[in-house]
Amino acid sequence: MTNQDFIIREIHAKDNKQMAIVIREVLSEMGAPKEGTAYEDSATDKMFENFMKPTSFYYVLECHSKVVGGAGIARLDNFESKTCELQKMYFLPMARGKGLGSKLINICLERAKKINYTHCYLETMPNMNAAKALYKKSGFINLDKPIGNTGHYSCKVWMLKKL
Fold first, then answer.
1. Which of 1, 42, 71, 122 is the most buried (most CB within 10 A)?
2. What's the rounded Cα separation, in Å, for the pair 97 and 72?
3. CA distance linking residue 139 with residue 7, whole number of Å
4. If we measure between CA atoms, which residue out of 131, 117, 111 comes closest to residue 162?
5. Ordered structural domains, the chain, with CATH
6. What is the C-alpha separation between 69 and 100, in angstroms, rounded?
7. Backbone dihedral angles phi then psi of residue 126, each to the nearest 5 degrees
8. What are phi and psi of 103, to 5 degrees?
9. What is the chain's pLDDT, residue by residue, as a tens digit (163 residues)?
10. Alpha helices in the chain (DSSP H)
11. Rounded alpha-carbon distances, angstroms, from residue 4 to 23, 61, 66, 140
């Protein structure tokens, strides 16, 4: 597959089922717990509806009419500032290692700036080494503790980027 086989576009309601499968498959592949992660979030099954707010958006990565990944931005819950959260960034193996993650992060962060967010927060798991490397390469720095309250208590890596 070449990068021309992949399309980044905004999520549609019809993408909900495929995106939920991607998220749960990747979490299972990574050996992530089901509790305290996106695996059990009710939002995982209603991605389109949950990101249809003026302060949020979600993009899917499509290959030959199949959703194979995605990422989005939403206001960080329970935190008073202009801080957003990079949420539910997951790619199936076929989409990894092609620079698509960096491209999607850049698209998300540029749009977040246009909504007047000043910082972007994210959470991930310690064993997700490729994801952590990607986030560092994109300018995120590690934090000593979480901010806000995402409910993802199994995610023990917290990162922040000034936009």
1. 122
2. 19
3. 24
4. 117
5. 3-118 (3.40.630.30)
6. 10
7. -55, -35
8. -60, -45
9. 788 899 999 999 999 999 999 999 999 998 877 877 777 888 899 999 999 999 999 999 999 999 999 999 999 987 878 999 999 999 999 999 999 999 999 999 999 999 999 999 999 988 889 999 999 999 999 999 998 776 666 678 999 999 9
10. 16-29, 47-50, 100-114, 129-137
11. 23, 12, 14, 28
Q: Compute the distance between CA of residue 29 and CA of residue 49 in angstroms, rounded to an integer.
A: 26
Measured CA to CA in angstroms, residue 82 lies from 22, 75, 114, 163 at distances of 29, 8, 12, 10
Separation of alpha carbons 132 and 2, rounded Å = 24
